[in-house]
TrEMBL record:
This protein's name: Aminotransferase
Named cofactor requirement(s): pyridoxal 5'-phosphate
Family: Belongs to the class-I pyridoxal-phosphate-dependent aminotransferase family. LL-diaminopimelate aminotransferase subfamily.
NCBIfam families listed in its UniProt record: DAPAT_plant (TIGR03542)
Keywords: Aminotransferase, Pyridoxal phosphate, Transferase
Superkingdom field: Eukaryota
Span of domain Aminotransferase class I/classII large: 58-421
Record carries keyword Transmembrane helix: no
Length: 427
């Protein structure tokens, strides 16, 4: 007593020095992947630039991530659904794995009116990218795949992960056993199908990410005829369909004969600012069959029931509000805002003397830097103008020499980016 109590110190057990390894073999397919997924790699380089230049005010024209608030009428519907969950009457647990009936019906009547798509053929999900992986899981490792080159990296990377491909060939910068269909200014961004070998699956994105180009009706008729002749399945990614302002098709089902050969994915991400909310859908027509006559929709349903528990009920309430008359008008307003950004960026690059593509029916402008490496141009724009873009070669070897500028951004940032680009590349 009277003396300070002895101090008790907690001493951690010494950390074991020897590294312990499991005896689990790494999935060889994951070992085939080159570097990281494109967008985290871009974020890494952006952060490295920021670490060296802490005062840099970086503007992103990189990843296609929406920036403007979700329209009130849609956010309020999600708010009401969330509040409802705290009441006995409004609470709901697991929903149908395929999505709420009302939302499936609204998707069919809004985006597929007159095209013969049934509510029961629409699977609501947490996004088109996730559905692409689940489709790959359904297809399995033993089939062949074709992609547009350049293309959205999730198609190729998920093929590699599933084991559909061989090793990466650094010489041509392509994975073996994938058919890359070149889409360049020379062929008007539509592949020469007469020179394309048959594959089981053809991934096709229109309006296209990254080139911003849209396939015409005649081109899609050619694609559907090609798939029918070869007995292939088209996975048609229509995530940017709402941006189409001319008479290009918004859905592959506008093309007669597509129901027997095409699956379509769609997304609310770029329509309503749902990149973080997560809501999309996939259409699998009843008529689509494997070679033995088994309906593909039954397998996709099986995959969804096993690997997915249905989209968030709050997000689905938002999706339903998107498709109300007020929601549709609000989405159109949002899309018009991004389209004006796109027009401004496209006009700037054109004025600066670059050959510029896309940027009319899509929120992406595809800019050519002849004879230069895409990653070098990316670094130049990042280090000299503090602007993040996306290097074209990140979308496949066909993107080399191009850079993609995304039009998702606050207007003041787009205006500022234009100013900096003019300083960097103006005469
Ligand atoms: C992109 O920048 O290409 C998009 O963010 C892709 C996506 O929607 O996942």
């Amino acid at each position: 007593r009277g003396r300070a109590a002895p101090r008790v110190r907690c001493v951690a057990e010494p950390i074991q020095k020897e590294a312990v390894r499991t005896r689990v073999k790494r999935n060889v397919n994951l070992g085939k992947l080159q570097a990281g997924y494109l967008f985290p790699e871009i974020a890494r380089r952006r952060n490295a630039h920021l670490a060296q230049n802490p005062d840099a005010r970086i503007i992103s024209l990189g990843i296609g991530d929406t920036t403007e608030p979700i329209p009130k009428v849609i956010a309020e519907a999600m708010e009401a659904a969330a509040r409802g969950l705290s009441t006995l009457e409004g609470y709901s647990g697991y929903g149908a794995e395929q999505g709420q009936g009302a939302l499936r019906g609204a998707l069919a009547s809004t985006f597929y009116k007159g095209l013969g798509v049934k509510d029961s053929e629409i699977f609501v999900s947490d996004g088109a990218k996730c559905d692409i992986s689940r489709l790959q899981l359904m297809f399995g490792p033993a089939l062949s795949v074709a992609v547009q080159d350049p293309s959205y990296p999730a198609y190729v990377d998920s093929s590699v992960m599933l084991g559909q491909t061989g090793e990466y060939d650094t010489g041509v910068q392509q994975y073996r056993n994938i058919v890359y269909m070149p889409c360049t200014p020379q062929n008007n961004f539509f592949p020469d199908l007469s020179a394309t070998p048959r594959t089981d699956v053809i991934f096709f994105c229109s309006p296209n990410n990254p080139t911003g180009n849209t396939a015409s009706r005649a081109q899609l008729e050619e694609l559907v005829a090609f798939a029918r002749k070869n007995g292939s399945i088209i996975v048609y990614d229509s995530a940017y369909a709402i941006y189409v302002e001319d008479d290009s098709p918004k859905s592959i089902y506008e093309i007669p004969g597509a129901r027997e050969v095409a699956i379509e994915t769609g997304s609310f991400s770029k329509y309503a600012g749902f990149t973080g909310v997560r809501l999309g859908w996939t259409v699998v027509p009843d008529e689509l069959q494997y070679e033995d006559g088994f309906p593909v929709i039954r397998d996709f349903n099986r995959v969804m029931c096993t690997c997915f528990n249905g989209a968030s009920n709050i997000a689905q309430a938002g999706g339903l509000a998107c498709l109300s008359p007020e929601g549709l008008a609000a989405m159109q307003e949002l899309v018009a805002f991004y389209k004006e950004n796109t027009r401004m960026l496209r006009a700037t690059f054109t004025e600066l003397g670059f050959s510029t593509y896309g940027g009319v029916n899509a929120p992406y402008v595809w800019v050519q830097f002849p004879g230069r490496s895409s990653w070098d141009v990316f670094e130049e724009i990042l280090t000299k103008a503090d602007i993040v873009t996306t290097p074209g070669s990140g979308f496949g070897p066909g993107g080399e020499g191009f850079v993609r500028a995304s039009a998702f951004g606050h207007r003041k940032n787009i205006v500022e980016a234009i100013d900096r680009l003019k300083k960097l590349y103006g005469k």
